[in-house]
């Protein structure tokens, strides 16, 4: 298997597990991952937020870690990457206001490259206009956005993932084992024991 080059779009208050776990897991299996944030450069950090499910009507939020970026957003070109990963948390709600971010999502989709989005990551997919006629899972509160963007919201268990074509989506971080396995399958990554 040839190592793949993956772009990870992050921003302040990205969900802690949804950025840390995929970043480290993809590196662990030999892929190259560039974690970038608009208006920031390699070595700078974004703040993370820890979202948990503790019995209330929605998730709770606690301060997370500082996550170090390892590439400059200004140098990113979609054609240089094999796949795109979009973590959730609060970052997607403001990243979707950035025209360059939306253009990147559109370019990956137009090229048919694998795109993995979890939780609120679907907000970027919706804002980029790539969900029309497609199935997409997301955090349930983002379901209306998927529908308004012309997509079909897939209401699945929080620990499951959904794949349609080049798109692999999941409701939240409890889905990491299934979501990352599905993403690795789209990348052609084979892990043998």
TrEMBL record:
Classification via PANTHER family: DJ-1 PROTEIN, DJ-1_THIJ_PFPI FAMILY PROTEIN
UniProt GO molecular function: peptidase activity
Protein's UniProt keywords contain Protease: yes
Listed name of the protein: DJ-1/PfpI/YhbO family deglycase/protease
Annotated DJ-1/PfpI domain residues: 4-184
Record Gene3D superfamilies: 3.40.50.880
NCBIfam families membership: PfpI (TIGR01382)
Protein's UniProt keywords contain Hydrolase: yes
Protein family: Belongs to the peptidase C56 family.
Pfam families: DJ-1_PfpI
This protein's UniProt keywords: Hydrolase, Protease
Biological processes per GO annotation: proteolysis
């Amino acid at each position: 298997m040839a190592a793949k080059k993956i772009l990870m779009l992050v921003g302040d208050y990205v969900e802690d597990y949804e950025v840390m776990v995929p970043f480290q897991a993809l590196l662990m299996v030999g892929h190259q991952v560039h974690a970038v944030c608009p208006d920031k450069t390699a070595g700078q950090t974004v703040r993370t937020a820890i979202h948990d499910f503790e019995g209330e009507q929605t998730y709770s939020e606690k301060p997370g870690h500082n996550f170090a970026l390892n590439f400059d957003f200004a140098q990113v070109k979609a054609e240089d990457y094999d796949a795109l990963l979009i973590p959730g948390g609060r970052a997607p709600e403001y990243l979707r206001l950035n025209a360059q971010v939306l253009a990147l999502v559109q370019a990956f989709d137009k090229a048919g490259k694998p795109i993995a989005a979890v939780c609120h990551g679907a907000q970027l997919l919706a804002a980029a206009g790539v969900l029309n006629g497609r199935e997409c899972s997301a955090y349930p509160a983002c379901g209306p956005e998927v529908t308004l963007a012309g997509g079909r919201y897939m209401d699945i268990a929080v620990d499951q993932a959904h794949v349609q074509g080049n798109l692999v989506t999941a409701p939240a971080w409890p889905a990491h084992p299934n979501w990352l396995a599905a993403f690795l399958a789209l990348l052609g990554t084979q892990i043998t024991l």
